[in-house]
Design goal:
This protein is α/β, with parallel strands linked by helices and 341 residues long. The protein is built from twelve helices and twelve strands. It has a six-stranded parallel beta sheet with strand order 2-1-3-4-5-11, with helices on both faces. It has a four-stranded parallel beta sheet with strand order 7-6-8-9, sandwiched between helices.
Length: 341
């Protein structure tokens, strides 16, 4: 009994009457190929059984063509559009995604690593800001797969990072408030542990220093990025009777807390106080007043991170270990000049 020769990509190209590169593109990035060309390649693939053979080769290489995404909270409004970008790019390249909602629970993170250890996932996307708990622990045999951090870099590591330029974005935000005439600008979101918060605070400080404005440490308050932290920080300022004319918040959720606090005190925004956020999450345009903020290109961040990870999986060396995208100033109704008199 003769064994049938396994079909090759050259066979598919010959039958379809196209180049090998076109076959590869039609299989891995079908949206970039004309409909008629894609139809010819699809028919040739069906005739040769090439895709079945390709899957068999993938199994022999112990590749799953799946990517594990670890996120601390899938309910975070920043996450959804990043996920769309991640999944879109993965799908175009023939990969699927697995989403691990860690809920900031070390045990859950360790549990999700079973997908790596059992070859059910080839690489990791980290939205957690740290290496997964369980990696590197004594007695743990989980291998280190190719990884890319998104949104928040992994401190003290060489894990590639794709995200927004937080320093530059916060500097632009503070400069916008300064341009409106504000000199007493509070920053809510001080943190010594979150890299994103620290970079945004540094951008705020750089803008004030560049404008010759003395930084008042009493106007820099802690915040963990939640709405409650924004409300509490604002109330704390009233208790101490140290008030700014404008608030620059580490993110939109914090800004919402500031608006809630000021509105409860019957202040007219932005006539009495200006409030600015960062991220441009979905509610930013619906809150009253609508929020002036810095928009993250979340879809592009997701696409860029997946593209980088798949390049690592292909054995390529990235040109840069850090890819920073620019945020965009979105001007709405929560910022105006300071009240006179």
């Amino acid at each position: 009994m003769q064994h049938r020769k396994l079909a090759t990509i050259e066979d598919v190209a010959a039958i379809a009457g196209v180049s090998i590169a076109t076959v590869s593109r039609a299989i891995n990035e079908p949206t970039k190929v004309a409909d008629e060309t894609r139809r010819k390649v699809t028919e040739a693939v069906a005739r040769t059984g090439y895709t079945t053979n390709a899957m068999a080769r993938s199994l022999r290489m112990r590749r799953s063509n799946m990517i594990l995404i670890l996120a601390p909270d899938v309910g975070d409004p920043n996450f959804s559009n990043i996920l769309v970008g991640l999944e879109t790019e993965a799908s175009k390249r023939g990969y699927g995604v697995l989403i691990g909602n860690t809920q900031n629970d070390p045990t859950r993170e360790t549990d999700y690593l079973r997908f790596i250890n059992s070859n059910q996932a080839d690489g990791l996307i980290l939205l957690t800001g740290h290496l997964p708990y369980g990696i590197g622990e004594q007695g743990n045999t989980v291998r280190l797969p190719p990884m890319v951090a998104v949104n928040e870099p992994v401190s003290n590591s060489d894990v590639p990072f794709v995200g927004v330029d937080n320093f530059e974005g916060a500097r632009i935000a503070a400069e916008h408030l300064i341009a409106q005439g504000h000199h007493r600008i509070a920053f809510i979101g001080h943190s010594t542990s979150k890299a994103v918060n620290m970079l945004r605070e540094q951008g705020y400080r750089a803008a004030l220093s560049g404008a010759g404005i003395t930084i008042d440490p009493r106007l820099i308050l802690d915040g963990d990025g939640t709405t409650e932290s924004g409300r509490a920080a604002t109330e704390h300022m009233f208790v101490r009777d140290v008030l700014p004319t404008a608030f620059l918040c580490v993110n939109d959720a914090t800004a919402l807390g500031v608006i809630i606090s000021l509105s409860a005190r019957k202040y007219d925004l932005p006539r009495d106080f200006s409030v600015m956020g960062f991220d441009d999450i979905s509610f930013a345009s619906f809150v009253t007043p609508s929020l002036t903020t810095m928009k993250q290109p979340r879809h592009k961040i997701g696409e860029g991170a997946m593209d980088l990870l798949l390049a690592l999986l292909a054995g390529e060396t990235p040109a840069k270990n850090e890819v920073l995208l620019r945020s965009e100033l979105i001007v709405r109704n929560s910022v105006s000049g300071p009240r006179r008199g």
